[in-house]
Each structure stands twice: as structure tokens, then as C-alpha cells.
Amino acid sequence: NIQACIFDLDGVIVDTAVYHYKAWKRLANGMGFDFTEQQNEQLKGVSRMASLDLILGWGNITNKTDDEKEQLATQKNEWYTDMINTMTPAEILPGAREFVLSCRDAGLKTAIGSASKNTPTILTRLELLPLFDAVIDGNSVSKPKPDPEVFTKGAEALQVAAANCVVFEDAIAGIEAAIAGGMKAVGIGSPDTLKQANLVVSGLDKMTLEMLEEL
Ligand code: G6P
Ligand code: MG
Fold it and tell me: Cell division among the record's keywords (predicted)?
């Protein structure tokens, strides 16, 4: 029986993937190469520095020092935050706000479990902070998904046992993290990609409380 819902942010509550993509693309282009939207899929749920490493690999760039990598990641984040600083609640994905509210009305606890260090900014811009009992993000975890740390900390903050938690995730690494943490996983996206999930829906607009009971 589900007592808590833990939501990934990017790709589940809001579509920030397009902003991440634009900022990383600009960075790559500045170094003289490009990458595809399909390669961009591999960046979903992946931390900032791990994303940079993947992108540098795609560009066959092997000579960057740690300091230079730090500067590149900072530059990307400046471009990214320029874009998210003008986001509005209109950019909340269809049905997301409604589903979180229906969970709360039913007495379920709600939390965010995201790899993003920009989570507080995004939740504030979207006026969603009051909808979550706990927010665990890239500022409070040391081990990235697929390690379950972000969701385990979420369950602890909500004081709900892992087995009674369900995680909503659009990234393969996030589904793996939920399963590894002993939680149920609902995939947001395509069943072909999110094979390990207990259930896959195209978006939270397709999700109902009744479906939680069948997990
Ligand atoms: C989420 C996104 C990733 C992003 C990561 C870190 O998991 O899906 O694309 O790289 O967060 O985000 P940040 O805002 O800390 O750079
Ligand atoms: Mg995501």
C-alpha cells in the first residue's frame, strides 16, 4: 500500500530538458562540435559533471583539466539558469500539478527527488514548493542515480518505508535507482525505454490514484 509519492523533477513535473539541451549544445558548439537529440536522451537524470564528461567524450576532447571542466560546467549552468529564471507556472507539464494535489488530498506524502542543483529555483519559479513535504536534490546527495540515495533520503524525510513509496521517473537511471531502493517505479515516457518500471504512462495527466493501488 502506497503512502508516499516521490517525483523526479526534470521531465516529470517540468520539461527543462530542452533548456539543458540548448545550454549543452551551445557549450559543445563553442568547442567546435555538435551532438544529436538522441545523444541528449542519455543525459537525462545524469548529474552536471557526468553530463559534461559524456559530452566531452562525444567531441573526442580528452585534454581538459579538472579546473577547466569546472569552468565549462559553470558556463553551461549560467546559460541554463538564464533560461530557467524566466520560467512560469505555464511550463508545468500537463496534469502534474493536479496529480500531486490529488495525492495530497488522498493523504499521501509527496516529495521531490532530483539530481538537479537548480531544483529550488525551478520549484520557486513554478510556485510548486508548497506541494511537497520534502525536497531532496543535487545539493543534498553525494551519489548520483542509479544509486538510490536521493530517493532513500526522500523516504526518510517523509518517514515512510521504502516499500510504501512510489517513484515517478523519466530516466532509466532513475527507474533503476527506485528499484534499487526497494520502491515501486512509475515510468514517465515510453515502455520501450523504461522497461524496468512497474508501470509506464506518457505523462502525469494519464495517472490516477486507482492506478497506484495496482502497483
Ligand atoms: C536532472 C536532469 C539532467 C541534469 C541534472 C543536473 O537529472 O535530467 O539533465 O544534468 O538534473 O542538473 P543541474 O541543474 O544540477 O545542472
Ligand atoms: Mg528526469
Answer: no
